[in-house]
Structures are given as structure tokens and as C-alpha cells.
Design brief:
With about 325 residues, this protein is α/β, with parallel strands linked by helices. The protein has two domains: about 10-245, P-loop containing nucleotide triphosphate hydrolases (Rossmann fold, 3-Layer(aba) Sandwich), CATH 3.40.50.300; about 245-330, 2-Layer Sandwich (Alpha-Beta Plaits), CATH 3.30.70. The chain is about 35% helix and about 25% strand. It contains eleven helices and 14 strands. A six-stranded mixed beta sheet has the order 6-7-8-3-9-10, with helices on both faces. α3 (about 120-130) crosses α4 and α3 runs parallel beside α5. The protein is globular and about 70 Å long.
């Protein structure tokens, strides 16, 4: 079966007499003990609890299998949790699913375009499913397709597009919608570095008046666009906050990356093995300067930088999966 964005039919509007709003509420996204255990016994989420404002960009990061997609599907009303409760702007994601779906748009990780449609037709059809008239849907579709950089390909069949372009078509669908709450499951997968940065600009613009939940394994992406970042590890939420709040988890300001086996006495810092023949040293500014001088004198190849989200992630849950790192390198070649 070809999977598009989950369409929320116009008929749902008749079930609720609440007026639709054009901008995200200043309410909250609340999870209370959300747990999801799949039929095979795999625990994808384990008692996840948090409360964040229902506006801006919330990035969820973690290793492969950490529970990112499961959390996104639960909050977007597409998956029932095994236990616990979740609500968006006061509406329960299960009990009030139909009402929420009028206000939600989703790009699933496994989303695909229809091969015999064009980007404009794809977006226009989705908008008509959401209740927009044909003329308005075509105008909005062309605008959205152009915004994601597919203007020249707007009327080409989707089957002639590259994988990255097809991903852009899916993103353009939610850009064109009036959804207040948008869920993007690894939207930049398959995009080249330039296209990824173009997507970041679009996300930042959207995040000004809507809520976006973004799952990603690109840590620089989360650091660049997110107002808040949640770190999942084996189904547990191990950290949540802004970049400044997450930096506050570390007592160190700088990180050095050195070859494994390098003899280096570290007084004030901590070392973390990255598992790729490299070691990361998290330390203070003064010791970073001292260590750098000693490494230069010893003619050791190293890098030194202010603490990034990559350092916070490494410190919190360990190095990224080798599989993720290899995938990232392959995509950027």
C-alpha cells in the first residue's frame, strides 16, 4: 500500500463545533508516564513524562531504536500507548483524537509519494482532503512546492524525482496545511547538505507560529533549529531542555577529540571513549588551552571546540550508533 501523509477527512470537522485556529495555542504538550510495549515484548517507551509549551520546535534525538518514532506517533494520535496519558492543548491524544486530527499534520518516517502524481497534485490532493477548495489548493500547493525548492519539478511525475526531492514533496504538504501541530519524523533523511539547510530555514519560519515535533539523528540539526531538545535512550527520557539548559548539565565548556591511546594527563576534565578509535575530553577553558598546547608540542592531531549538542549527547548516553554515523557519511558523499 502506498503511504501518504495520514489524511484527516473534512467529515471530521462536522463532529466538532469548535472553531479552527490558524496559530498554535499557548497551551501545553503533556506526557504522563507514557509507556509503549509492542506485541513482541519490545519496550519502546518507558514511563515518559514531560510538559512543554505547545509552540516552537521540539527536537527529539536518540540512538536508533531509542523510541523517537514511537513518541511522535503516540503524540500525533496514530499509536495507542500501553499505559499513561498524553494531551495537546488540553485534548487527550486518544479520547479526543478526532478533534486533534483537524489540527495536526504528520510526515511519517516511512511516508511515500504516489508515483503517478506530480508534486503539485500531491499537495493539492492533501489540501482538498483537509477541506480546501480546488482552486485554493492548487495555489497553495504551488507556493509550498516552490518554498521547498521544487519549483522547476512542480509538474514532473513523482517517480522521476530523486529520493531527497520526494522527501521535500512530503514536507511541502505540511507546509501548505493550516495545521497547528506538525510532526516530522526524520524529515531531512536523504537530503543533501544544501537542501538540509534550506529545510532548516523553513522549519524555523514555521516554528514562529506553530508547534513542530522533529525527530532526527542529525544532532547539528536539532541544535540549529530547536527551542527545546529531548534526549531518549532505550525508551527513557534522560534529558530535556533548551541548549543552554542542556549545556548546564555539563560542568565543562570545551571538548577535545584525540586519538585513542594518546598519553595525556587530564586534571579537571572527563574522558569519553567514542568507539571509533577516538576519545573525547570534556574540560574547562583553561585546561583546554593547556592540553592543546601539549598536543601541538607532541605533534598529535586533535580538534578543540566549545561544547556542542554532540558532546552533551555523548556525555549523556554515549556515542552515536556506528550505523547512524555510517549512514550520515553515505548520504553526504
Amino acid at each position: 500500500m502506498i503511504l501518504l501523509l495520514e489524511p484527516y477527512p473534512k467529515e471530521l470537522e462536522q463532529e466538532d463545533d469548535q472553531p479552527r485556529r490558524n496559530m498554535a495555542s499557548t497551551g501545553e504538550i503533556i506526557c504522563e508516564g507514557i509507556t509503549k510495549v509492542y506485541s513482541g515484548g519490545k519496550t519502546a517507551l518507558s514511563s515518559v513524562s514531560f510538559s512543554i509549551p505547545a509552540h516552537g520546535i521540539f527536537a527529539v534525538i536518540g540512538r536508533n531504536g531509542a523510541g523517537k518514532t514511537t513518541l511522535a506517533r503516540v503524540l500525533s494520535t496514530l499509536l495507542e500507548p500501553s499505559s499513561g496519558k498524553a494531551s495537546i492543548d488540553g485534548l487527550d491524544v486518544m479520547a479526543d483524537a478526532n478533534r486533534l486530527r483537524e489540527r495536526v499534520a504528520v510526515v511519517p518516517q516511512e511516508g511515500k509519494t504516489v508515483s503517478w502524481m506530480t508534486p503539485v497534485q500531491t499537495v493539492s490532493t492533501y489540501l482538498m482532503w483537509r477541506g480546501v477548495d480546488y482552486k485554493g489548493s492548487m495555489r497553495m500547493a504551488r507556493e509550498a512546492v516552490a518554498k521547498v525548492g521544487l519549483g522547476p519539478q512542480a509538474d514532473r511525475l513523482n517517480r522521476t524525482l530523486s529520493g531527497g526531492m520526494k522527501r521535500k514533496v512530503l514536507v511541502s504538504m505540511v507546509l501548505a496545511s493550516d495545521a497547528e501541530f506538525i510532526f516530522l519524523d526524520e524529515p531531512s533523511t536523504g537530503l543533501d547538505p544544501i537542501s538540509r539547510q534550506e529545510l532548516w530555514r523553513l522549519l524555523l519560519e514555521l516554528g514562529k507560529d506553530r508547534f513542530l515535533l522533529l525527530t532526527t539523528h542529525y544532532l547539528e540539526e536539532a541544535e540549529h533549529v530547536a527551542d527545546r531538545i529531548g534526549i531518549l535512550d532505550e525508551g527513557e527520557l534522560v534529558a530535556l531542555g533548551s541548549m543552554e539548559q542542556l549545556r548546564g548539565r555539563l560542568r565543562h565548556d570545551y571538548s577535545l577529540e584525540i586519538p585513542e591511546g594518546t598519553v595525556l594527563k587530564v586534571r579537571d576534565g572527563e574522558t569519553v571513549a567514542l568507539g571509533n578509535g577516538r576519545v573525547k575530553v570534556l574540560t574547562t577553558r583553561n585546561e583546554a588551552l593547556d592540553l592543546s598546547q601539549r598536543l601541538i608540542e607532541g605533534k598529535v592531531q586533535f580538534s578543540v571546540n566549545p561544547v556542542t549538542l554532540d558532546d552533551i549527547f555523548t556525555y549523556t548516553v554515549g556515542a552515536m550508533d556506528a550505523e547512524v554515523a555510517e549512514t550520515r557519511e553515505a548520504e553526504e558523499e
